[in-house]
């Protein structure tokens, strides 16, 4: 099973899924670009995080090779978006409402340039079928030194190049009450950083939006 190496990994995040408005079109674009890609598959899960409830369905595919080594990269289309993107979703007590930024640690400048080039190429291939309304705001590529200076953390990219997730929050005071009791190292720079690099291989950041 190709997932077994990740299921037994000491890191929390190994997979990123890009959003598509038409998964069949995304599959076609990747094939035409000569990319190794799986067939389009369907998956489902119960959705009960808002007023609308039911079985959420997804069409998805995996790329044979991610531009970021030792990670999985997929593309998915929400086939039942009314169950996922609801106007009145249940709110987490920390008030986070979306992922604002994925932080990738390349380790050094050479790999950083390679990652940016490879990921940019993939985004251009997929752009005609991208779901621009439901994207992460930003993907930030850092070296070890940049990660330390910007976020005050030390993360081992050998565990996973996915180094951090930054969440947008709607209520800063509610977030502070939540993190004050989380039991992990808290660092306040431009954003509030919960450092779980040792435990999970990445940090969690929070910023007011």
Describe, in plain words, how this protein is organized in 3D:
The structure is a single chain. With 209 residues, the chain is of the alpha/beta class. Helix content is 27%, strand content 33%. It has helices at residues 4-7, 23-32, 81-84, 109-126, 144-151, 172-179, 197-200, and strands at residues 15-19, 41-47, 54-62, 72-78, 96-107, 138-143, 162-169, 185-188, 192-196, 202-208. It has a 6-stranded mixed sheet. It is globular, with a radius of gyration of 18 Å.
The amount of helix comes to: 25-40%
Strand content: 25-35%
Biggest sheet features: 6 strands, mixed
Q: Which whole number gives the mean pLDDT?
A: 88
Helix count, DSSP H or I runs of 4 or more residues: 7
Coarse morphology? globular
- Note the run of SSEs as H and E: HEHEEEHEHEHEHEEHE
Largest sheet strand order: 6-5-7-10-9-8
Task: Round the Cα radius of gyration to an integer and report it.
Answer: 18 Å
| Poorly predicted runs of 5 or more residues | none
Q: How many extended strands? A: 10
- Euclidean distance between termini CA atoms: 40 Å
What structural class do helix, strand and pairing data support? alpha/beta
Task: Provide keyphrases for this structure.
209 residues; alpha/beta; six-stranded mixed sheet; 7 helices; globular
Topology:
Layout: H1 4-7, E1 15-19, H2 23-32, E2 41-47, E3 54-62, E4 72-78, H3 81-84, E5 96-107, H4 109-126, E6 138-143, H5 144-151, E7 162-169, H6 172-179, E8 185-188, E9 192-196, H7 197-200, E10 202-208
Parallel strand pairs: 1-4, 5-6, 7-10
Antiparallel strand pairs: 2-3, 3-4, 5-7, 8-9, 9-10
